[in-house]
């Protein structure tokens, strides 16, 4: 048994909140049972991100992801990682007001074993986060660069570059914390500002492209395994040369088929 498995602790909301002062949290996305099964007992949290709309469904952004799509993938992730703490992204348009948000988040709870939902937005969405948490839905916030705002903002823009924006981000984090969120993703934010935000709130911050001073990190699995070739953000570290390894393996398979060496006698019935 590996060291990681022996040290792995099944997470819950209390343990995640307590991690703030104790240790860094490792979060990874997953979209299916196969990979969720590989990540379970290693990552503290598995996020079924609506980024699946891009890397899995091949769309240009996350905006057309649907609730049914998210539920389908979350069921698969929960099947593959039964013990994991699974968070699911509420897709664009499913939390436009408090009632819609509660109806849709309740559907996620009813149909999947997800432990929590994630909502993009700061002060502007604090009333929605509060409505959900008051109705017993666990919420992870998401501030900074918010992919669901890409069309209204005219692109993906790194946040916190000036004092005014830095102050707004701190207000956003405090509003989401006050609304009852148990943690906050901080995406695409200048690292000194992400540090300030992390010091300002008492719940764990999970950074992505936000430097090293957040309380944890999240990466999209297909980015960090080098499988998503379309675009590689600066903050992604390649932990595997996935795309090339896969292509080489499939080329080898093709070559073995073509030269007749696959299947061999041992691979026959
Ligand atoms: O959709 C997603 O995968 C996310 C992460 C980038 C945090 O929201």
TrEMBL record:
In this chain, Mg(2+) is annotated as bound at: 50, 89, 120
Q: Which PANTHER family match?
A: 3-METHYL-2-OXOBUTANOATE HYDROXYMETHYLTRANSFERASE
Pfam families, per this entry? Pantoate_transf
Known pathway: Cofactor biosynthesis; (R)-pantothenate biosynthesis; (R)-pantoate from 3-methyl-2-oxobutanoate: step 1/2
Which catalytic residues are annotated?
Answer: 187
**Any one GO cellular component localisation term in the record:** cytoplasm
UniProt keywords (A-Z) are:
Cytoplasm, Magnesium, Metal-binding, Methyltransferase, Pantothenate biosynthesis, Transferase
* UniProt similarity note: Belongs to the PanB family.
Sorted alphabetically, which SUPFAM superfamilies does this protein's record hold? Phosphoenolpyruvate/pyruvate domain (SSF51621)
This enzyme catalyses:
(6R)-5,10-methylene-5,6,7,8-tetrahydrofolate + 3-methyl-2-oxobutanoate + H2O = 2-dehydropantoate + (6S)-5,6,7,8-tetrahydrofolate
Task: Fetch the InterPro entries from UniProt.
Answer: Pantoate_hydroxy_MeTrfase, Pyrv/PenolPyrv_kinase-like_dom, Pyrv_kinase-like_dom_sf
Q: Where in the cell is it found?
A: Cytoplasm
UniProt function note: Catalyzes the reversible reaction in which hydroxymethyl group from 5,10-methylenetetrahydrofolate is transferred onto alpha-ketoisovalerate to form ketopantoate.
The keyword Ribonucleoprotein is annotated on this UniProt entry: no
Fill in the subunit field for this protein: Homodecamer; pentamer of dimers.
Entry's cofactor comment? Binds 1 Mg(2+) ion per subunit.
Reported cofactor(s)? Mg(2+)
- A biological process term (GO) from this entry: methylation
GO MF annotation terms: 3-methyl-2-oxobutanoate hydroxymethyltransferase activity; magnesium ion binding; methyltransferase activity
What is the official name of this protein in its record?
3-methyl-2-oxobutanoate hydroxymethyltransferase
Q: Which residues bind 3-methyl-2-oxobutanoate?
A: 50-51, 89, 118
- The record's EC number reads 2.1.2.11
Keyword Cell wall biogenesis/degradation found: no
